[in-house]
Amino acid sequence: MYEIKTRETDQDVRQFIETIDNEKKRSDAIKLLEIFSETTGLPAKMWGSSLIGFGSYHYRYASGHEGDAMITGFSPRKANFSLYLSTSQEDRTSYLARLGKHRAGKGCVYINRLADINEDVLREMIQCNLDYIRAMYPQRKV
């Protein structure tokens, strides 16, 4: 049976951020922590060893696979920041067109530094993410 590897941990978020060697990346991570915290109104929690998540929800697929996941969050990777943002495809296209310099995957947006993007659009995307997950998984308060 499939085992979920990324789970919420008790690791301290601020201590994790302080381990980031690059001063600019550490500074951007602190600012992202503020942006996500203010926008979601949810406490930051570590998920696995390197993801900073906000909120959680329980999902269950038709296949029977189920688990818990963070609603939204980010990870300060060595090469860039991974922003975990789920929205409808229509909303996603609109936001990404206004976000600024980024690359996008299926559920992630990758940025090199915070100065490359529009912080107001990021806040809108985070709020849209919350609304989207709450609509998709209404069985549990998220």
Which consecutive residue ranges, at least 5 long each, have pLDDT under 50? none
Known CATH architecture? Alpha-Beta Complex
Q: Which structural class do the helices and strands define? A: alpha+beta
**Rg calculated over all Cα atoms:** 15 Å
Largest sheet: 6 strands, antiparallel
Strand order within the widest beta sheet = 1-2-3-4-6-5
DSSP strand tally: 6
- Tell me the span between the first and last alpha carbons: 26 Å
The DSSP helix count reads: 4
Summarize the structure.
This protein is α+β, with helices and mostly antiparallel strands.
Describe this structure in words.
This protein is α+β, with helices and mostly antiparallel strands and 142 residues long. It has a single domain, classed as Aspartate Aminotransferase, domain 1 (Alpha-Beta Complex). It contains 4 helices and 6 strands; from the N terminus they run H-H-E-E-E-E-H-E-E-H. The chain has helices at residues 13-18, 23-40, 89-99, 119-136; strands at residues 44-47, 51-60, 66-76, 81-84, 103-104, 108-111. The protein has a 6-stranded antiparallel sheet. A hairpin with a 5-residue loop joins strand 2 and strand 3. The chain is globular and about 45 Å long. The model has no long low-confidence stretch (mean pLDDT 91).
Which secondary structure elements does this structure contain, and how are they paired or packed?
Elements: H1 13-18, H2 23-40, E1 44-47, E2 51-60, E3 66-76, E4 81-84, H3 89-99, E5 103-104, E6 108-111, H4 119-136
Antiparallel strand pairs: 1-2, 2-3, 3-4, 4-6, 5-6
Helix pairs in contact: 2-4, 3-4
